[in-house]
Amino acid sequence: MNVxxxxxxxxxYNQRLAGPPDAVFPLLCPVREADWIEGWAPLLVISNSGVxxxxxxxxxxxxxxxAVWYITRHEPQSGFxxxxxxxxxxxxxxxxxxxxxxxxxxxxxxxxxxxxLGPEGDAFVASFTDEYYCKMMQDxxxxxxxxxxxxxxxxxxxx
Length: 159
Fold this sequence. Notes:
With 159 residues, the chain is of the alpha+beta class. The protein contains three helices and seven strands; from the N terminus they run βαββββββαα. The protein has helices spanning 21-24, 119-127, 130-150; strands at 8-17, 44-46, 57-60, 67-75, 80-87, 91-102, 105-116. This is Polyketide cyclase / dehydrase and lipid transport.
């Protein structure tokens, strides 16, 4: 048995979203994300309902190997979802999102916790800086807000 201290990073960002939780929460789904994230195309989604639910599994393309996602908690009434993403040999990641109502829409507290599974994972964890995460979350925030306000995907060309 090889027990080691983890190489891990956890980051949280609070997105301000232009819609109530009941409009935002369904968009946090491997199928519905294709409505608002340009280029989002899971390779496989395993779901009884066809959308996000407990025990939904999906696979996304990643380098050097595809990532497997597993929805461990999906609680629409409380606005909470938790997913585990395993990129073999690279990282194990826990993603949690808590969507809460505010006067002008919602706040989504988005937390990624990455644990390295080896040397490539160590490099990834080191690169997952506050600056990198903030930029990633601001892009996500602008895309979902565009969809909530306009009903269409924000394209890289600015459409």
